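Could someone model guanosine-5'-diphosphate with this protein?
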Amino acid sequence: MPDPIRDTIFALSSGRPPAAIAVVRISGPRAGDALTVLAGRLPEPRKAALARVRDPASGEAIDEALTLWFPGPNSETGEDIAELQLHGGRAVIAAVLGALGRIEGLRPAEAGEFTRRAFENGRLDLTAVEGLADLIGAETEAQRRQAYRQLKGLLGKRAETWRARMIEALALVEARIDFSDEADVPEDLIGPALKIVQGLRDEIAEALAGAARGERLRDGLVVAIAGPPNAGKSTLLNRIARREAAIVSPIPGTTRDVIEVHLDLDGYPVTLLDTAGIRDSDDPVEQEGVRRARQRASEADLVLWVYDAKDGPAQSEALPLVGSVTKWMVRNKVDLLASDKRNELKKNNEFNISSIVFYLSATTGIGVAEFLAQLGDYAKSYFGAESSLLTRERHRKALNFTQSALDRALAEGPSGHEDILRHLLCGPVYRPNGDSRKLRARQAREPALAARRSARSALRRRR
Ligand code: GDP
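Reply:
Sure, complex below.
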């Protein structure tokens, strides 16, 4: 029977071959043996050594490699880890992975299995694992910064301090319940407990206030390009994305689905959506495109309402269709207007609304740089300079749950219901949607037990 934990696993840890270098990692109790079989010997721990890698069956040399040896438990997975840095050709990698697969007790790792072992061996907590996934997926500087802080325990450490303070508050409540008949127990233990709860509640509320920003930073600021057909929306998207991402066509109504382009604007992630031209149509396919366009635009963070400079503001009639999202007016094709006409337009606020208006040409590029600079500033102010503590829906939901328990504790506490207070501080256990796994009883009781121990020793110290 294969033992999922005791098996030694291996995988190509670097990107798709061919490449200059390929990194093969081996983790588990037989990692050291496997490296010895392939490379002849184990290098000194944590020191790179050059070695000839041979096929153990035929003795034939496969490649020269740098070998590394990280004995557990102070390794990334908490187990013994061996690493080979090979030349990154397909045949080299296939030969090495093939040779490893023939060693008893070794098998290819499943996706994420190295990280899973790190988690199970207490090398990374769940927030750090999430940070690691985000760091690998990070496409922009701001995303990288946020993910790195998460990996380094920004949220995990804060959650630990919250937990410690919760236990401190609970200890006071426990002392009040269990030892109140003893003469030297101070009368008011609930007051100080509620003070701690209030402080915690405020901190958690503050963290929750930045949650939407943190989650958005993972996905990107969503900017929808909307407007009437043939206004130049696809052309503008292509110019911004600098590649042919959307079909540009002189026939109105060609962009029938929503096209997405991910951009890095001054380090901030922006997802640009090119939507179908929003107008009335009898064509059912186009109607569907318009329906999707309106929906995506109304869910966006910013809508760029593009229209043809020649046609003027009459084309803004459909504008309210995209809802109450912030909108910027983009008057496109200004290359078709004489420059005096252009200047005249700029002077008059044709919409009589406090919206930003841009004058540009998607085909010639006039005004596009200024427009992008403003969009970059908008993304920057949207995300703010500071990384958010919470980055996922999971964090937000768990802390919303905590916050409402703390709110109830603050409401119940002063009325002297100590049992209710105790229940609110340690009783409810957050379970993510659909997760029916029961926390082990011991784990659920653990905060209460810790609180009781801490209450006893606090009382002992007072005596
Ligand atoms: P969409 O339906 O809004 O996506 O419009 P398209 O991007 O498909 O453009 C419609 C037509 O307008 C195409 O023939 C484009 O080449 C043309 N067009 C787009 N932007 C400009 C511009 O800035 N100047 C000029 N002269 N033509 C443009």
